[in-house]
Amino acid sequence: xxxxxxxxxxxxxxxxxxxxxxxxxxxxxxxxxxxxxxxxxxxxxxxxxxxxxxxxxxxxxxxxxxxxxxxxxxxxxxxxxxxxxxxxxxxxxxxxxxxxxxxxxxxxxxxxxxxxxxxxxxxxxxxxxxxxxxxxxxxxxxxxxxxxxxxxxxxxxxxxxxxxxxxxxxxxxxxxxxxxxxxxxxxxxxxxxxxxxxxxxxxxxxxxx
Length: 209
Hints:
The chain is an all-alpha fold. It has helices at 3-10, 13-23, 27-48, 52-65, 74-82, 94-102, 106-117, 121-146, 150-180, 195-201. Helix content is 71%, strand content 0%. Helix 5 (74-82) runs antiparallel to helix 8.
C-alpha cells in the first residue's frame, strides 16, 4: 500500500476547496503544500520508527487514538479543526501529533515546504495541524485493516516513503528532511528508492525489506 497515494486521495475537490479558503490560497497551491506536508510527515514517522521504542510508541498511539474514523467525514473534521478547539480529542490534536513527529522543527519544515509550494510560512503552519490527523488516520486505518504487526507497520512506512521519493517528491523530500531530520542529505544520482530515504530508513528491521 502506498500511503502517499491514499493521502492524496483523501483531498477531494470539496475538501481542498475548504482548506484553500481557510488559508487564503488557490487550490493548486494548497494541493502542492498538502503533498509536501504529507511527504514530510510520512518521512518523519518513518524516521521515528527506525528504532524499536519509536516504532512501539507509534503502534500504541495508532491503536489507542487513530482508528481512521475521522476519514468518514473529512469536511466536518477540517471545519472543526479550523476553529482551533484546544480540547480536541487525541485523534484531532494536530499540534500534539506534529510535536511527536517533528518536535521543535516544525517551522523549519514549513519554510522548506513554502519554498516548494508558493504558500507563505504562515499558511503552511495553518495547514500542518489540520493535515496531521489525516496522516495518522490513514496510517491507523491501514494498520487496523491489514492487521499489521510492528514489522508490517515499519515496512509500509518505508515503502510509502520510498514511493513518495521516487514518485515526483524526491527534491522536496530531500530539502525538507535534509533540513528537518538532522543533516542526512540525498546523494546525487541515486537510483529509484535509494537516496535520502535509503539512508534514513535503512535501519528499519535491521535493513530487512
